[in-house]
Specification:
By secondary structure, this protein is of the alpha/beta class. Helix content is about 30%, strand content about 20%.
Length: about 200
């Protein structure tokens, strides 16, 4: 069976959140890094690559101590979201598929990861979770697609390039509407947290 490598993107500065999202915790104190890694591993990924960038050294201690978790640092994270995707996909080698998720999806259930993984896929696999009509994460990228996606995103590391590439490449939708709403949390008011990690008002 093809190895499935989770790729958790957590490199951004979190401008709207008021702090790097790699440093954010749930109200009970659980780091979002823990939540994201757990969802990928519990959903069937064989190992997880966590991509850090902004505040990387402060974020490292927040990683869960689970087997199969490694870190890469996107040194050019400030160039845009695509820079962290390039770093993560580059860390996945051989015939492995990459199951890409984001740290600002603390509601992502392992069941959605499991559904997108399915049979684990193969070199030509290209799938992504959809919630209603809205595309989301995780995204499963087979080894035959990695180089092309990396090349496209490296040329334009903005936040829309990967989605455009996926649509043009014919990504297959995997309906996960019954499992979750797919909402990302990019503001303190959406996460229930203040920018210093404490519970926000309201």
């Amino acid at each position: 069976m093809t190895e499935a490598v989770g790729v958790l993107l957590a490199a951004g500065a979190g401008t709207r959140m008021g702090r790097p999202k790699a440093l954010v915790t749930d109200p009970d104190g659980t780091p979002w890094l823990h939540v994201g890694v757990d969802a990928l591993l519990d959903g069937g990924c064989d190992r997880v690559v966590v991509v850090l960038g902004a505040a990387a050294e402060r974020a490292r201690p927040l990683l869960p101590r689970r087997d199969g978790v490694t870190v890469v640092v996107a040194e050019d994270w400030a160039a845009g979201p695509g820079a962290s995707l390039v770093a993560g996909l580059t860390a996945v080698t051989g015939s492995a598929t990459a199951c890409v998720s984001l740290v600002d999806l603390p509601g992502l259930p392992a069941a959605a990861v499991r559904r997108v993984l399915g049979d684990g896929g193969g070199p030509t696999t290209l799938r992504r979770a959809v919630f209603g009509a809205r595309p989301g994460h995780p995204v499963l990228v087979g080894s035959a697609h990695r180089a092309s996606l990396v090349s496209a995103v490296a040329a334009d590391p903005g936040d829309r390039r990967a989605g455009l590439w996926l649509r043009r490449a014919g990504v297959a939708p995997v309906d996960c509407t019954d499992l979750w709403d797919g909402t990302d949390r990019d503001r303190p008011t959406a996460s229930g947290l203040s920018t210093d990690g404490r519970r926000g008002a309201g």
